[in-house]
Design goal:
By secondary structure, this protein is an alpha+beta fold. The protein has one domain (15-164): Nucleotidyltransferase, domain 5. It is 40% helix and 14% strand. It is built from seven helices and four strands. The protein has helices at residues 12-15, 21-29, 64-68, 79-95, 115-126, 140-144, 150-164; strands at 34-39, 44-50, 57-63, 102-104. Strands 3-2-1-4 form a four-stranded mixed β-sheet, with helices on both faces. Strand 2 (44-50) and strand 3 (57-63) form a beta hairpin. The longest helix has 17 residues, at 79-95. It is globular.
Length: 166
């Protein structure tokens, strides 16, 4: 480990591997609302946040447990669930007069067609404009869960119909 009078310890959240401050600064300089997508082992969380000096202000937040209220039976952290969480978050964002945002994936590794971009696809399909490359979004079959089983596809379509009515 580096020592000496000129060595500076990194900030606490950088040291813990929680925040990339360079990336955060680039996102904050845009002045737009951030669509924050976080993936854990059992949940997917989508939040629309604005910067404030005293701390970020979360304007709307949705996680996997919210879509269970609309009949979702599948796992809380798979590709179809990520799409539905993003779709519901986008619907709530539009009600909060958020029509444009930028994607904040934090320290997650961006993978083409992954859960993060499935959530992005849901947000975009709900009507919120987020700049992105369409090639990174998952295919329709994967988004609906055909790679899992037929019951997941049926459940996905039922839940999406309920969310469209909102």
């Amino acid at each position: 480990m580096a020592e000496g009078p000129t060595h500076r310890m990194p900030l606490k959240r950088r040291q813990e591997g929680k925040t990339d401050y360079r990336q955060r600064l680039r996102l904050l300089k845009s002045g737009k609302t951030r669509a924050v997508v976080r993936v854990s082992n059992n949940r997917i969380i989508v939040q629309f946040t604005d910067y404030h000096e005293d701390g970020d202000i979360v304007r709307t937040s949705v996680d996997s447990t919210h879509i269970e209220r609309y009949g979702w039976d599948g796992h809380g952290s798979n590709l179809p669930c990520a799409y539905l969480v993003g779709y519901l978050a986008g619907k709530k964002a539009i009600k909060e007069n958020i029509d444009e945002a930028i994607l904040d994936i934090g320290l997650n590794i961006p993978k083409k067609g992954g859960k993060i971009f499935s959530a992005l696809n849901g947000i975009v399909d709900s009507g919120v404009h987020i700049p992105h490359d369409p090639d990174i979004l998952p295919s329709e079959d994967r988004k609906q869960g055909k790679h899992i089983n037929e019951e997941t596809v049926e459940n996905f379509n039922e839940v999406k119909e309920k969310l469209e009515e909102l």
